[in-house]
């Protein structure tokens, strides 16, 4: 299985959203995943981080996701919600097959204008 991997505080973090976790998110939210990821709320960010980490850490909780988010924000490479979304979560969605790399580059290009 492919993962989006990055280093954070000396630890390799692996992210992937599995199809089963996608179904779980859709059941819980009542939204299609591609609609859900367009909601830039903290709830959405943490939910996606939680499920994406569960591919390698099965009991990863919402609290764990909050802790991971806070570590990302504290890291100067990421530092804000927008960067976490585009450079962490959306990259994980590309590896997971929910976005094409070209689509992500287009999204990033639009946000920089």
Description:
By secondary structure, the protein is mainly alpha-helical. Helix content is 58%, strand content 9%. A hairpin with a 2-residue loop joins strand 1 and strand 2. Helix 3 (42-53) crosses helix 4 (62-74) and helix 3 (42-53) packs parallel to helix 5 (81-95). The longest helix has 15 residues, at 81-95. It is globular. The model has no long low-confidence stretch (mean pLDDT 93).
Question: Short summary of the structure?
Answer:
By secondary structure, the protein is mainly alpha-helical. 58% of the residues lie in helices and 9% in strands.
Query: Which structural class should the secondary elements be placed in?
Result: mainly alpha
Shape: globular
| Whole-angstrom Rg | 13 Å
C-alpha end-to-end distance: 35 Å
Beta strand %: 5-15%
Main traits of this protein?
113 residues; globular; two-stranded antiparallel sheet; mainly alpha
Give the SSE layout.
Blueprint: E1 4-8, E2 11-15, H1 19-29, H2 33-36, H3 42-53, H4 62-74, H5 81-95, H6 101-111
Antiparallel strand pairs: 1-2
């Amino acid at each position: 299985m492919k993962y989006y991997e990055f280093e954070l505080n000396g630890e390799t973090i692996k992210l992937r959203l599995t199809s089963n976790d996608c179904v779980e998110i859709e059941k819980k939210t009542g939204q299609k995943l591609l609609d859900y990821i367009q909601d830039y709320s903290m709830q959405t960010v943490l939910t996606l981080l939680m499920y994406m980490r569960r591919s390698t850490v099965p009991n990863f909780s919402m609290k764990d996701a909050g802790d991971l988010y806070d570590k990302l924000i504290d890291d100067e490479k990421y530092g804000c919600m927008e960067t976490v979304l585009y450079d962490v979560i959306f990259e994980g969605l590309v590896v997971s097959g929910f976005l094409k790399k070209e689509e992500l580059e287009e999204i990033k290009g639009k946000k920089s204008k």
